[in-house]
TrEMBL record:
Residues 48-118 form the DSBA-like thioredoxin domain. SUPFAM superfamilies: Thioredoxin-like (SSF52833). This is Thioredoxin domain-containing protein. Keywords: Disulfide bond, Membrane, Oxidoreductase, Redox-active center, Signal, Transmembrane, Transmembrane helix. It comes from Candidatus Colwellbacteria bacterium CG10_big_fil_rev_8_21_14_0_10_42_22. Belongs to the thioredoxin family. DsbA subfamily.
Length: 235
């Protein structure tokens, strides 16, 4: 069996045609997922509806969201993603105190591959060089640091951090979200940082949801930020 079959990599997401049909083509067969859609009232694609669903004050949330004051924060995450090599979503940079550089996992890969990446970050497994064909491996020249602005889930003092660059309308991000949840809950030495990489050309709800999640954090703290994400991805 080809070992590459163990990896589920989204590959390129291509915008097709001269705006004739606005079709989006996902290359390589991937696990399905129901993406969030639109900004219609009553749908999970509406940030205000998500805020209401998780118990935030909708008037305060609306004021924050309409102010656009978190647009620059989302932009900063996008710049950081590009600097780390992220071009599609989800894109994971795993750093550990026991290694220099970082381990990359690109796409909605199986849990076993994330577990292998964590072992590499712990220094308990050989560092496999990054292979862009499978979206997995070690990059010695990549460094990432956690900032006070980051949203952290799990043990804040953990020696290993999974940094996810993601899009809240991305079906592959939705597929892998529970995988990362379980890894963090099962491993006390692992924390999870979420950063925004909205693919606005194909996901019109991605940026509104990203900025909305930051308003959730402003109004309800770190727990509200993660509750916002969980609500979006559970639909």
């Amino acid at each position: 069996m080809n070992n590459n079959q163990n990896y589920l990599v989204p590959g390129a997401i291509v915008l097709a045609g001269l705006l004739i049909a606005g079709a989006v083509i996902y290359v390589q067969g991937l696990p399905g997922g129901k993406p969030t859609t639109g900004l219609e009232e009553g749908t999970v694609g509406n940030p205000v509806e998500v805020a209401k669903a998780i118990g935030l004050n909708t008037k305060d949330f609306q004021e924050c969201y309409e102010s656009g004051r978190y647009a620059d924060d989302v932009d900063a995450d996008v710049v950081a993603a590009e600097a780390a090599g992220g071009a599609g979503t989800p894109y994971f940079v795993i750093v550990g105190e026991s290694i220099e550089g970082a381990v990359i996992v690109s796409g909605a890969q199986p849990k076993a591959n994330f577990e292998k990446a964590l072992d590499m970050a712990r220094g308990n497994a050989d560092l496999i060089a990054y292979d862009e064909n499978i979206g997995f491996g070690y990059l010695a020249n990549l460094s990432e640091s956690i900032s006070p602005e980051d949203h952290i889930r799990g043990n804040v003092d953990a020696p290993i951090t999974i940094i996810e660059y993601s899009d809240l309308e991305c079906p592959f991000c939705q597929v892998v979200h529970p995988t990362i949840q379980s890894l963090v809950s099962e491993n006390s030495d692992v924390s999870w940082v979420y950063r925004h990489l909205p693919l606005e050309a194909i996901h019109p709800s991605a940026r509104p949801l990203a900025e909305g999640s930051e308003c959730a954090a402003e109004l309800g703290g770190n727990d509200a930020f993660w509750a916002f994400l969980d609500k979006v991805f559970e639909e």
